[in-house]
Structures are given as C-alpha cells and as structure tokens.
Design a protein that fits this description.
heterodimer; A: 506 residues; PmbA/TldD fold; 5-stranded mixed beta barrel; 10 helices; B: 447 residues; alpha+beta; 2 domains; 6-stranded antiparallel β-sheet; 5-stranded mixed β-barrel; 24% helix; 38% strand
Amino acid sequence: MTGVPARTAPTGAGARDAIRREGPHVKQFCEQCLDAAVAAGASYADVRVTDTLTQALSVRNGVVEGVSSGSSFGFGVRVVADGAWGFAASSEVTGESAARIARQAVAIARASATVGARPIVLSPLRAHTDTWTGPCAVDPFSVSTDDKLRVLFDADEAMRAQEGIALTTGSMSFLRERKTFASSEGSFLEQEWVESSAGIACYAIGDGDVVTRSYPNSHGGACYQGGWETITALDLPGNAPRIAEQAVQLLAAPLCPESTTSLILDGSQLALQVHESVGHPTELDRVLGDEAAFAGTSWVVPGDLDTLRYGSPSVTITADATVAGSLGSFGYDDEGVPAKREYLVRDGILTGFLSSRESAAEIGRESSGAMRADGWARTPLVRMTTVSLEPGSAGTLDELIADTGEGVYMETNESWSIDDKRLNFQFGCEIGWEIKGGKRARILRNPVYTGITPEFWGGCDAICSRSEWQVWGLDNCGKGEPMQVAHVAHGAAPARFRDVRIGVGR
Amino acid sequence: MIDTTRARALAAEAVAFAEEAGAEQSEALVAATNGALTRFAGNRIHQNMQSEDAEISVRAVIGTRIGVASTNRVDPAGLEACARAAAEAARLAPEDPSFPGLPAASPIEHADRVAAATLAFDAEARAIAVGSLIAATAGAGGVAAGGVARDHTVTAVANSLGVGVGMARTSVRATVLATGAAGGTGWASFTGLDASGLDAAAMGAFAAETARLSADPIELDAGSYTVVLAPEAVADIAQFLAWYGCSAKSVEEGRSFMSGKLGQRVTSPLITLVDDALRSSAIGLTFDYEGQPKTRVALIDAGVASTPVTDSYWAARTGTPNTGHALPAPNAMGPLPLDVAIEPGDATRESLIASVKRGVYVTRFHYVNIEDPTRVTLTGMTRNGTFLIENGQLTSPVKDLRFTQPALEALDTTLGVSAQRQLVGDEGAALVPYLLLERFTFTGRTT
C-alpha cells in the first residue's frame, strides 16, 4: 500500500439546506437567477445548477492505493448584455447569491462589450420543458467498496502472476450528475446520468526501458454512461493474463522500424485518431478562431462545407448525442438544444460542424447541439458528443489483416500530439505487430506513426464491419481556459490506411 | 471569499470534528478560490467569467487505516459531515502497515504573495488590458486572441499533530496570439502575482511584430539542427523532465530517467534544474498539501541527476528527508515539483543567436507529449514564431516543424544559457532561460 487513503463524500453533501435540487425549489432558484439577470439588463440569460457525486478506487501492486469520493454543488449564470457575454458562478446556492451572481454576470458582460463587441445572434431554438435520464441498470454507488476492490484485486493478482511484470495498476471511477437548466427563453430541463469506468495496466521494466500494456484501453480504461453492469461486462480479471504476457514479450521485442507502409489501427486507437484529427478540427468555435490562442484553430474553413474532400469515399463520420450508453450522450446540451445525430463527413466530403447557437448562426446554420460545460463553474464550449467513424464492409480484424498482406497493426494509444491546425499528428501505441503474408508476425515495441490529416484519411481504404465496431468513451478531453475536461466518445472499428510513415525518430 | 484566518479556522474545526468522530490522527485541507478570466479572439472579448468556490478535504487516520472525504459545503454542518465521512472511510479501509503517520509541524517560511493591484483587477480593468493587447495587431490589420486571467486563492492545512498553516496568493496570466494581415503569427505571455507588472501594450506590440516577421515562411527539411529555444519552449522541456522524472515515486518504481542514475551525469554541466518555491519570483505555496515546508531541491545539479522530491510517505519509504512536495490526498501521482526553474547562465538572447551559423529559433512548442519516459523522448510542434538562423541572425520565418527528441540527449548538447529568465505557465509555472542546444531533431513539417 502506498499511503494513499480511502476517500468518501459526506452523506448528503450534494444537497443544500437553502436550495434543494429537486422539485419547485430549484425551479424557483433558477427563476430568481433569470429574473435578476433580466432586471439588471440582460437580453438573454440561462442558469445551470449542477450537483455531482464521484467515486474513484485504485490498486497498485496488490494493495489499495486509494478509495475516494467527492461532491460538488453550485450554479452558473450566463448572460448577454450590451451585446456581449458574461458568466458568473458560485458554490453558494442561496436566494441572495442568485441575485448577486446574476448581477455580476451582467456587469462582466458589460465589460466585455467595451472591446470589439458585435451583436450576438443565436440560432433559433424552441423552448423545452423536459427531463432526461441516462441508462443505469445497477447503481454503482450502491455496490460495496469490497465488491469493487475484489474485481481490481483479482485482475491485479492475475497480472502479477506473470513473471517479469514489475508494476501493476487498476482503477475504477464513477460519477453521478444531476443538472438543471433554465433560460430566459422559457426552457426548463432536468437531466441525470451515471458514468462508470475501469481499466488495468501492467509494466515490464528492463534495462532503461519501460513498456506498458493495458486493458480495455489506456489512460484509465473504458468509460461508459451506465452502471456497475458495464464494469462486470469488461471481465478485467479474465483479460489480465493476456496483457501481462504481452508486456513481457514487448520488453524483448524489437523497436518498430522506420518505414512507409500499410497501417491497421485497432478501434481504441482509431477512436483517438478520430478525436484529434476529425472531432477537434470540426468544432466550429475553433474553425472561427475562438480557441486560436490556446488549443488552436482548424485546417478547415466554413466555405469548405460540402466541397472539401476530408478523406477517402470510405470515410463517413457522424456526431451523435443519442447513442445509448455513450459518454457523449445527453438529452439536451448546455444551451438547451435537443440531442442530435448529424454527419460531419459523408463519403469523404466535409458536411457538418459541431456547433453552438452562436457559432452556427455565424454560418447561417442551426446549432448541432454540442455546447457542454465542465461543471457548474464553467461556461459551455463547443465539445464533441459521440463522433464516430461509421463501420465499413471489410469483415473482421483477422480478415482485414489477411487482406493486407504486408504492413503493421497497432493497438492501444500510448501518446498523442497534433499541431494547432489539427493537420500534423504523431501517435504512439502500446504494441504493434508486423503483418507478413496476411498474418500477424513479430511484436514491435514503441510503435509510432505520423501523418497529415487529409492525406491520412485519404489513404483509408478499408474499415471493418459493424460486428467489430464499438463505442470508446474518453473522459479526458481538455479544451478552453480555464481548462475544461469533457467526457466524449467515439465509435470505431479497425481500419486500414495506406502509405503511412511509421517508426519516426527511432 | 474567505480569508486566511478563516480558512485556518475551518481547517482546525474540521480536524476537531474528525477527532470527535473517532479519528486517531486527522488532517484538513481548505482551498478557496475566486478566479476570473477574460478571453478574446477576433479582436473582441468572446468569453468572460468569474467563479468562486471553497472546498474542504479531511484525511482521517485510525491505526494505519486512512480515509478522506471532501465537499464544497463549508458551513459547520458540512464540515462535521465531511469529517464523519472521512472517519467512516478510515474504518472501512484496509490497513497500510507502511503508512508512517501524519507529519508533525515544521516551521514554514512566510511569503507575501498577494498584490492589491491583482485583487482590484476586475472585469473592467481586464477589458482595458485586453484592448492594449489587441491594439498593435488590430492597427496593422491583423487579429489577436488570448486571455487575461486573475486568480485569488487561499489555502490552509491543519492536522492533529500541530500543523496549522495558511497562505493567500494572487496571480495574473496574460497571453496574446497575433495573426498578421499576411498570415504570420506571434506570441507573448506574462505570468506573475502582481497585475501592476503586466505591460499589455508592450506584449501586444511584441506579438504583432513577431507576426509581421513570420509572414511568408519557408519550408525547412527535417533533420538535426542547432536551436535557440525561447523560454516558452524551454518550459515544456523542464516541466516534462521534472514531472515525469523527478518524483521519488517514479524513481523508486523504475519509471524515471533518474532510476539507477542518481549521481550520474545526464545532461550538460550547464544545466541545473531546481525546484524552489521560496525564490522571490515564485507564485506557489511555501508549504505543501500536508502543511510541510517546501525546500529548494536541485533535481539536476550541473548536469548530474541529483535529488528527487519527496512527501512524508516517500521520505519515510526511501529514508530521505521530506522535501515538502506532497499533493492533496489521496494522491496516486506521488510527490511532484511544482516550482521548477533552470538556473541562469551568462549569455543573452542576442548572443545565443549570434553564435549560431545555421540553426532554428523556436518561440514556443505546441501539444508536447512524452513517448518514452526513461529517455524523456518528447514530440510536439513549433508554433507562433519559428525562424531560420543564418550567420548569427534570424533570416527567414520557417513553416512549423515537428520534433521528436529525447530531452536529456538534447540538453546534453547545451552550448549556452541566458541570464534572462521568464516565468512561464500558470499553476506549476517554470522560471526558465533561453537555451542554445547544438543538436535538436525535427522529424517532419506541415506543408
């Protein structure tokens, strides 16, 4: 045990004496915020009240490293006043703070208006009154800590049974969020969902080398909107021996050689490839320059819609906030726009953007429903939902490898980097295999590939069929200042890319 | 916004509640924040926010069982519930025979890190600063983007062994990315605790001039080049080295470049990498999240892998002094250096450039990530002001390049270090100079 303790949230800490989340109290509170904002001069106002409960457990080398939970409750008011945006937020959720924070948001908006203000136009939206609840069969907060740790201990023990494994880790995390949204246009929306995630990893350490294998994905594992049932379905203990054996094999494997070849990516790595080289560059706020100074801009411009060849005709990519069980799903976004499914790229041609009401209006469209905020203290930004590479017809992974002849297959992300226009990227994977004669041959260590976005997607000539397609949750998407972390997802099946440069810098 | 006295009182109250709930030892961490940020793009303010929050975290110890609970409800009922939950978690937690106990009180060096000008740096004042950041670029027909952030934080730690510390801090960070009418880009940033030190007009003018000079870049082939790295680029390297390699935990687990190499040369002797929260330019806490005094640590001392940082647990486990680098519990990362600096040399930016016959000048990197932790192999892109150096002068702007480079190997070719240093970043900001490196590998470019 490493001295990192158990951590739990106080019972009932998510509630407040002054304002209860449920029922008429929270509605009355929202109305107080909106009334105060309008009285102070706001031409538009919305308020979000968010109540979040989290729990995380981790083990390391056979001992508990931490069992933690926390809670956060607060509200944020966003307004337009004098033709500019203002946002203020507080964890003090009282009638007094409702008026104070609303007035503060208006004052901030008026300060915004002093520099280059231009009229803010929001794409049209019908007011909605609704509730939405995400899927959850078994509430993970009702499952005992012992039961959760048992799964992690069993997997950890199975990994450490492999000779040559120096370090093992396993983790789970759970989240329940309850969010109320109200706007001066008349919307009142209540949403609640549960997220569950889990993963294991093992390290083999040799003379100056460290290699990692993880399951079901790196960077914390798999993430779902759902309950404990999503964790048990992963069978962490059952997969532990395989990755431990591969880690030891990796340590003795040759480095991935530098060459230009046919590359097959597994679904999890492809999910991140979609994220970085399609998801972010089709965020309309980036396209319009709003994130230029931090995350960057985009290689595409609004005029590229319906004309730009983004990839080969095999490539169709959707943005879908209605996928059941996906981290990228909701009933309504944080502007109150109903969840949608739209095409970003269809048959290789750019056809859409992820957008907000403001950014969509700038190009004469309606919002794609992609405004999402990281908790009550942040203003919403254009974020991904479930941005997916639609499946093809190349059959199974084995069939795709057999069809490839010579090349390399890479699996599970290790590192990622992409430029500020989302053009020049370089990814490292945990493990690679040479493909020789249509079969997997020797394992390759530290496989890395690099490319330019449209050239890479233009080289996509085969995508596995729907039987190989699955949604990969990603709970660490950073964007904006102050940094906001979004929970998004990507559906993908293994796919093949021609003429890719691999083994860079080795 | 609660003040330091109130934060210390809240922490002490929480410790008392934890003892009432049955904790044999207990610790409370209070973190109150009031943060504001004005963002601009396209020569207008497009996001502008302020938020306030206060969170308390209680660590309860029963035997060697440990539990932590946290909440952002800091009224008496919230504190008591939080303390009870921590004690309950401790009762349910497994024993940890290696737990050395909470640390006792040690004297803390007090530093005044609150500036009145920063407290008064409200939305109107930030808007005026934004106007100054934009002016030069807009006047030249370009567009500017960036942000002006102001933070006020109060942190307090108390424990049942007598620790009782608190500190307020302010910080300001401003950035400007200028895009000139001809498409070139330039960058400037400021980090400090005092808003009166922000010269927004000068920053805006520097970024605009860099943008002008960056127009019509040439393409440069991939390969190994001599480079002059500006502080923004150096900060990325320093922080990856420190955060991935200079924690006692990563060293002990064999995941660090220091593992098995303590006392051995790992870079040029011109490189001394330290963590020093006590220096006058630092903006961080002078104590760690266990309330222990932060000490100055030479991580790499004149090129030699020297000392990883510790907290109370890793100090006990490795039999070394507690350097005061604990993160908030529960902490799976281990101790971390958050106030890193590279010691200055005697060169100037101009003399470093003048000494290069043919090379590349890098203003900053973008999206740097680590591909190999033991070699600290980094990859990333150049951004916002990359120039060819020929015969000691910046001659042509260069299209952005991708680098893939083991950091230690690059630093082993250090030929010069500037006396001038800049504080780069926000939380965890690094104080770093310009560096002249003989060999740095670019592996691709964006055409």
